[in-house]
Structure formats: C-alpha cells, structure tokens
Specification:
Blueprint: E1 4-8, H1 16-23, E2 29-32, E3 41-45, E4 48-52, E5 65-68, E6 73-74, H2 76-87, E7 98-101, E8 105-106, H3 109-122, H4 134-142, H5 155-175, H6 183-198, E9 201-202, H7 204-213, E10 218-221, H8 247-250, E11 261-267, E12 270-272, H9 285-293, E13 306-308, E14 310-311, H10 312-322, E15 326-330, E16 340-349, E17 352-354, H11 361-366, E18 368-375, H12 392-405, E19 408-413, E20 421-423
Parallel strand pairs: 1-10, 1-11, 2-5, 2-10, 5-7, 6-8, 7-9, 11-15, 14-16, 15-19
Antiparallel strand pairs: 3-4, 12-13, 16-17, 16-18, 19-20
Helix pairs in contact: 3-4, 5-6
Bound molecules: guanosine-5'-diphosphate, 6-O-phosphoryl inosine monophosphate (IMO) and magnesium ion.
Residues 8, 11-13, 38-41, 127-130, 132, 134-135, 223-224, 228, 239-240, 273-274 line the site of 6-O-phosphoryl inosine monophosphate (IMO).
Length: 430
C-alpha cells in the first residue's frame, strides 16, 4: 500500500494545492490534517481557478473522498461559505464526499477578535498573522477549553463548553477594555449552523482504518510549510500548528506507518507572507520581478508576498527535519527571463560559515547568505511536460539543486495548470 503526504518545505504557498490536485487522480482519499482557513490552496483546471482554504484539494474531483481531520481548526461560518462558493462552480459537496472529524476544534468569533487585538496591539512585534483566529483556537485546544465539532450536537453540552471558554476569554477581554461575549448569543448562532456542519461529522480515525484495510490510497494534504512549523520554524514568526509530515498521523488519527512517501513542495525561489527572518529576501528589482511574474499575492489576505532566491540550506533542513523523500519543484517558469539564478548554499554568521539555520531569532536576522550562481536559460519553460524538453541550463540548475538538497526532484511544475507538470518519480509507486 502506498499513501503519500504532501507538505510545504518553505514558508507556505509553494504550490501544494496544484500538486495535491494533480496527484489526487491516483488517490482515493484526500485528507487535510492541520491548519485552518489561514491556508489558501489554488488549483487551475482547464483555465478555471479554484481557491480552497479548508476543503481538501481533492474535492474538485469526482469519486474521491475528502476529509478534514481532527488536527484542523474549523471556523464553521468560513467552512459553509467555502462550500457554498465551490458548489457555485459546479463542484459537488455532500456527506458522501466530504467527511469532517467529530473532534476537530472550532474557531469562534472571539478567537478571531483575539488574533486581531493582539496583532493591533503588538505594532512592531506583530507576527503578521492571517487574522483568522488560528493561534487563539489552537491555544484553547491545548488549554483544554476548546469547543469541538461534536459539542454542537447537544445544546446543554455546548452551553457548558461555551461557559468554560468564555470565562477565560472574557477575563482577558475585560483586561483589554473590550466588550465581553454573551454565551447565549453565541450559542444561538452556533446552533443555527450546527445541522449544516454536523451532517459531515464522523469518527475519522475509524473511517481511515476501514479504508486502510481495503488498501485504498490516501493523500495527506499539508498546509503552510516546515519553516512555519511551531517547533521547527522561525519561531515566534510561525503558525500555531506542526506543519511537518508526522502531523499527518496525529492530525487524522492513524499511525506514522500509514505514510509511505513524503513529498515536499518547493518553489524554485522563496516567498514569505507576514513578518520574520528571510535570509535570501530580495528588496530589489529581481525581487519585484519574481513577485510580478510569479503573481505573488496572498490567496487569503491579498498581501504582497516577500520574494527572494531559493534557499537551499533551508530546504535541505526542512527535508531532514520532516523526512521528505522527494520534492516537487514548482514555478520553474517564473525564473525563465533571468540572466542569472542564485541558490543559497551556506550562511555567514559573524565571519564563520554555517550550513544550517541558527535557532535564535537574533542570529537568524544576522546571517548573510552565501550563493552559488547559475546561468539562466532565457527561454520559456511554461507548460513543458517532459524533462528532456527543458532548456539545458534549466536541466543543469535542477541537477545542482537535487545534488545539494540530497533528495530527488520527483516532479517539476511549469505553470499553474494541473497538467503542466513533469513527472519523474511517482510517489504512489515508489
Ligand atoms: P499553496 O498554498 O502551497 O497551495 O500555494 P498557493 O496556491 O497559495 O500559491 C501558489 C500559486 O502559484 C498559485 O497561484 C498557483 O496557481 C501558482 N502556481 C503553482 N504552480 C505553478 C507553476 O509551476 N508556475 C506558475 N507560474 N504558477 C504556479
Ligand atoms: P498555505 O497553506 C503562507 C503565515 C502568516 C503569518 C504566520 C502566522 O496557503 O501555504 P497564522 O494566521 O497562521 O497565525 O499566521 O503564518 N501563514 C501562511 N503563509 N501560506 C500559508 O498557508 C500560511 N498560513 C499562515 O502569513 O506569517
Ligand atoms: Mg497558499
């Protein structure tokens, strides 16, 4: 049996959605296992664009099961809005093809407000979050005062759970000079949407177990990227979940031995949205060029993404931390017009050469990238579907990247379109 986990190897927006959609052709089940609607995954299929936030990227294909696992935090209103939006594009969403874990924690309006209040108050030290309430919702989950999907099934239970959560939040809100939240109002609002969401609720661990025994193929779809991981990323400028592949097991309810191949998605350059260290950031014309050609604007918040050269050191670190078996290199075409292309191969820290990202924020801000320069190919690679048809300089560049990061480039993406992808090694047949 072959199950595949897809994760981002940089700071998110690597093109996970495109690759998950492309690979989902070979999968039976597609599962999101962490994050929430901070994610924005874009699929382009025959010219039609789909932007997904909470729904797994397999939802657009017929006869596939899409699952939202227990590790995801769900804003019920955002989810219903997304379902409505995708249905309006002719995609079917029913309890037959969408299943949501009963134990997934909910993002409620006070989480979103807390996220916003903190960001506004922090001014210079702000994280630059997506302001969706992700952090506060995960805090409540770990603080054992979260409200889970099945809590919506009983009014009495919901009332108790809300009272518990609000006793905590209202105290903080009072301290911040904000109005307190009324249990009754929120309960009413939640009970109104409860049936719409509860119809998808199931014990996901059990369903996965059943599918596994039938040897169905599972594709685990990560959100964000390893450098935004709460443990392994550029802390505190990270998201509030573990984004590494092992999270696929805890976030859906199966063992780590259910994952047979870990595919890291890597952009041919680097982008980052929000604040935090970014050693290879380019604040010059080349950075602008990458942003313009790569259309680097956030799917969720429309913020301009910061752009820079490919950081081989960081990608190699992500590969080692999360056990990535091979990478899908995306957006190669964005480099087409450049005279020279650079990859960071080490850092200078106080005059010493180091080959990893130091752990303190202070050092992360201080390091200077050491680059290897490649000659550009100055011709279009857009839509190329065969490695042999890539310009020689592009082939050379890819081989060098592969050698440096130490794992195979198993696929290459040359445009946003689903099928403009070069397959080198099939993760499902590895
Ligand atoms: P995700 O969050 O990792 O799923 O990535 P996003 O969807 O947020 O951002 C990736 C963007 O790049 C999307 O607009 C994709 O349509 C686009 N994209 C993906 N692969 C390619 C590619 O190979 N070439 C180009 N030019 N665009 C791509
Ligand atoms: P996908 O799945 C890029 C970033 C935010 C911010 C930090 C914390 O589309 O790759 P949060 O709202 O999670 O508390 O914000 O993480 N961030 C992302 N950046 N892609 C994402 O998701 C992201 N999800 C969160 O910009 O810097
Ligand atoms: Mg995205």
């Amino acid at each position: 049996m072959k199950n595949v986990a897809v994760i981002g190897s940089q700071w998110g927006d690597e093109g996970k959605g495109k690759i998950v959609d492309w690979l989902s052709n070979k999968a039976d089940i597609i599962i999101r296992f962490q994050g929430g609607h901070n994610a924005g995954h874009t699929l382009v299929i025959d010219g039609t664009t789909y932007k997904l936030r909470l729904l797994p990227s397999g939802i657009v294909r017929k006869n596939k099961i899409s699952i939202i696992g227990n590790g995801v935090v769900i804003d019920p209103w955002a989810l219903l809005e997304e379902i409505k939006e995708i249905k309006s594009k002719g995609v079917e969403v029913t309890p037959k093809n969408l299943i949501i874990s009963e134990t997934a924690n909910l993002i409620l309006p006070f989480h979103k407000e807390m996220d916003e209040m903190r960001e506004d108050l922090a001014k210079k030290e702000k994280i630059g979050t997506t302001r969706r309430g992700i952090g506060p919702a995960y805090e409540d989950k770990v603080g054992r005062r979260g409200i889970r999907l099945m809590d919506l099934a009983s009014e009495k239970n919901l009332e108790n759970r809300l009272a518990n959560a609000l006793s905590h939040h209202n105290l903080i809100r009072k301290g911040m000079g904000k109005q307190i939240f009324q249990n009754d109002n929120l309960k009413k609002d939640l009970l109104k949407v409860a049936p719409e969401i509860l119809k998808y609720a199931q014990p996901v661990w059990k369903i996965i177990d059943e599918y596994r025994s039938k040897e169905k193929k599972i594709l685990f779809e990560g959100a964000q990227g390893v450098l935004l991981d709460v443990d392994h990323g550029t802390y505190p400028y990270v998201t509030s979940s573990n984004t590494v592949a092992s999270s696929a097991a805890t976030g859906s309810g199966c063992g780590p031995n259910s994952i047979n191949y870990i595919l890291g998605i890597t952009k041919a350059y680097t982008t980052r949205v929000g604040e935090g260290p970014f050693p290879t950031e380019l604040k010059d014309q080349i950075g602008e060029h990458l942003g313009n050609i790569g259309k680097e604007f956030g799917t969720v918040t429309s913020r301009k993404r910061r752009c820079g050269w490919l950081d081989g050191v960081l990608v190699r670190q992500s590969i080692r931390i999360s056990g990535i078996n091979g990478i899908a290199l995306t957006k190669l075409d964005v480099l087409d017009e450049l005279d020279n292309i650079k990859m960071c191969i080490a850092y200078d820290l106080n005059g010493n050469k180091i080959d990893y990202l130091p752990s303190t924020l202070e050092d992360q801000l201080k390091i200077k990238p050491i680059y290897k320069t490649f000659e550009g190919w100055k011709t279009s690679t857009q839509g190329i579907k065969d490695f042999k048809n890539l310009p020689i300089n592009a082939q050379k560049y890819l081989k060098e990247v592969e050698k440096f990061i130490g794992v195979k480039i198993s696929s290459i993406s040359t445009s946003p379109e689903r099928n403009d992808t070069i397959l080198i090694e099939d993760p499902f047949n590895f």
